[in-house]
Amino acid sequence: MNATSNGNLPKVTSSSLLAMKARQEKFTALTAYDYPLARILDEAGIDVLLVGDSIGMTRLGYTSTIPVTIEEILIHLQAVHRAVRRGLLVADMPYGSYHVSNRKAIKNALCLVKEGGAEAIKIEGGSKRAKLVSRLVQAEIPVMGHIGLTPQSIHVLGGYKVQGRDAASAERLLEDARQIEQAGAFSLVLEGIPSDLAREITQALSIPTIGIGAGASCDGQILVTDDLLGISFLTKPKFVRQYANLKELISNAVGRYRADCLTGEFPNESESYSGESKANLKAFTRKA
Ligand code: KIV
Questions:
Q1: pTM for this structure?
Q2: 242: buried, middle or exposed (CB in 10 Å: 19+, 13-18, 0-12)?
């Protein structure tokens, strides 16, 4: 497979990820928030596309993920859904969308599935979410769990701190992971935990783990795409590997455009219309 085509790779589903875990095959996940980037990621063969609530900080300018609403997730999910053919499309349940009652949580999750095209949803939290996970699974909604450094809990955690560093909290996280698996989740994100704990959890579970700041032993890896592409204004955590510098590329391109406009270099004759109306009509036709 080349870097820009997923060829004829089969559609990824929650069950195919479980089968990959059984075969000890690694997989990839990234966040996606809009049509063009989602299409590029999907065509590049990324297995899981997450419309994450990280959008609040990366794209909406919030200082945390706390303010993100179900409506904001929904509109971006719909755009990503229009782009994705192969990858598994997962939608994040934002803070407040599953905290009032299990009934309200199921209603919100159903909305992401029915109106947004999500094929699975992700919720943050360990043992205390087990009952909700099992209710969602009963409603035919595949659930991805998320434990460790859960950004929606920053006020309780006291900031963005690595979790599970001492024996007691590591034991609690292992128990959280077991309970989320028992409740029926098909996968589990491990965020901001020591690599050896992530390895232990990965070995203890039969569902795949997806690491972010959790070392190389997880079954899959996920990053915030904007971090990977260098288009974020947020500080770069230690675990991010930046593969491109789009901020610099964009700034450079926009600077050249500005200079060309100011000198009259743009637009030139071939970028302008003549008076022939037929040619004008043709030139305006744009196809996806
Ligand atoms: O919202 C998000 O992008 C996430 C991933 C980083 C796991 O939760």
A1: 0.94
A2: middle
